[in-house]
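Before going further, learn to read the protein records used in this course. The integers have meaning only within a learned vocabulary of local backbone shapes. To see the layout at work, look at the sequence and tokens printed below.
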Amino acid sequence: MKHIFRILLFIFCIINFSIAQEIAQEITQGTELKLESHPETDFREKIADSIADSIADDYETLDRDYVQFEITQNSPSINFSILKSYENLVKMLKSKYYSLLSWSLHTRRVNLQIENYDRKLKFGRWINDPNDNTCLNTRALVLQRDSTKNVIFKDSNHCAVASGNWNDPYTGQTFRSSADIQIDHFVPLKNAYMSGAYKWNFKTRCLYANFLGSEYHLLSVNGTQNMKKGDRAPDKYIPPNSDYVCTYIKNWLSIKFLWGLKMSATEADAVAASIKNNHCNTSSLYISDSEILRQSQFYQETLDLCEKLKVPQ
């Protein structure tokens, strides 16, 4: 996209160098483009719009309002996640349990633009842990873990799962063919990216996409429901299995809490509404210090799994 921008700007400079300079300056400052009336104004406006569009295509604007998880000790509030060093977390955690309902609303002073989400570029792919002495990638490992019976591998590929027995929490149904199952990133990759993972380096995002430190971070679910969910937060998707909704909400909050991810205001409102409407037991919506430290330790021990993967170009 940057190359397209340079080509368009070069062509535009040939038409009228002084006007091109003015446009480039206006684009850089993010102000409205102003062109004087000339016979070829329409053509210049089209080029200017193309330049502006090429820049806009590279970025997304975050909501100004967001909700942040916090732990409160005395009066000050401190933010944390398992991305911090294990030693620092040990020092920070002073209680046995932490509420998943401790939120605060914040408003950015200005609009924040970030690079557009791209699955392959930002999070990579399923990986194969070289230390587990198997040929199974993350998808196969999750399928194997979640099946209530021993999985059967494909005859043509002994590294790929063909069948098993999966109790899908989203529908409450049981599936036996791996073709019916997709691995759900419980907090979808794009949602994670937009709510904080854009700040992480590729290695951390890749590990998030392949994280096996909890049984709910990656989950074997019905493929149709996973497609319906997409990158949606609870304000736009809740599983149809009503018996699972409260667990779904707790898992969602736990992942956001553990990874230091924010929620949008509408997302937080929907979570609160789901808790109320489904009569979820709020006293169960907490996470223990031992669970935080366990997942932190797993994160630290597996951080190098994506080390050898090059950032996709």
The longest strand covers residues 161-167. Confidence is low (pLDDT under 50) at residues 1-41, 43-49, 51-55.
